[in-house]
Write a structure and sequence with these properties.
By secondary structure, the protein is mainly α. It has one domain (40-215): hpI Integrase, Chain A (Orthogonal Bundle), CATH 1.10.443.10. The protein has helices at 2-15, 41-55, 60-69, 75-79, 110-118, 142-152, 159-172, 177-184, 200-215, and strands at 86-87, 92-95, 104-107. The N and C termini lie far apart (41 Å). 30% of the residues are buried.
């Protein structure tokens, strides 16, 4: 985590000629194996999609929130999304400040766009605004997550767990590794050793096609 925070800062400092050398260069960290293994991810993704659309059938606010998560978005990215970040005309949404410190634009699925348009709102500030202070975003979604966890009878369920499900389902369907990384907002393939320009929009487009294919299949 320290390297992920400092590395882009030092790179920016080099670009602005403040320093000459990146102290993070050459440092590697072996991460402990903490990721939950996902079996039959395509089936699980469809079950989760059904749980979301059923549990929040009459609640476009939370249905849209969790469908964003099903696209591979992080909790912080979803909760801090603002109306100004949504481009309904072109079917896109932009995350101005992601975990790796860059702006990223993704494809906005029609299903989520329609839900957003039905959320009662003055279309200012945050999409998932707090019911107490409309200038702030909602902070706690534990109760809603627990509903889905109970519906699925899956103690592993959570926003971040959905990233594992999505990436595993995409891999099961044979989606290109570059698109997998782009769909999740990774700036490189291994989180990693060499930088390259990631196709976020194309990755999210391909991922969305695959998600729709899985969730709409009989």
């Amino acid at each position: 985590m320290t390297l992920e925070i400092l590395n882009p800062i030092f790179k920016s400092a080099i670009a602005n000629r403040i320093i000459l050398f990146n102290p993070c260069t050459g440092i590697t960290v072996t991460r402990p194996k903490t990721k939950k293994k996902v079996e039959s991810a395509s089936i699980l993704l469809k079950e989760i999609h059904n749980a979301i659309t059923t549990t929040f059938k009459d609640n476009p606010y939370f249905q849209a929130l969790y469908l964003f998560a099903l696209q591979g978005r992080r909790k912080s990215e979803i909760l801090t999304l603002k109306w100004e970040n949504i481009d309904f005309k072109n079917g896109l949404y932009t995350l101005p400040n992601t975990k790796n410190g860059e702006e990223q634009t993704f494809v906005l699925p029609d299903s989520i766009a329609l839900l957003l348009l039905t959320i009662p709102s003055n279309r200012k500030y945050y999409i998932f605004q707090s019911p107490i202070n409309h200038k702030e975003h909602i902070q706690n979604i534990k109760a809603q997550t627990d509903k889905l966890k109970k519906y699925l009878n899956n103690p592993s369920f959570g926003i971040h767990y959905l990233r594992n499900v999505v990436i595993s389902a995409m891999a099961e369907q044979g989606l290109n590794a570059t698109y997998l990384s782009g769909a999740l907002g990774h700036s490189d393939l291994n989180t990693i050793k060499k930088y390259l320009s990631m196709p976020y929009k194309r990755g999210s487009l391909e991922a969305n096609k695959t998600i729709e294919m899985i969730t709409n299949s009989n």
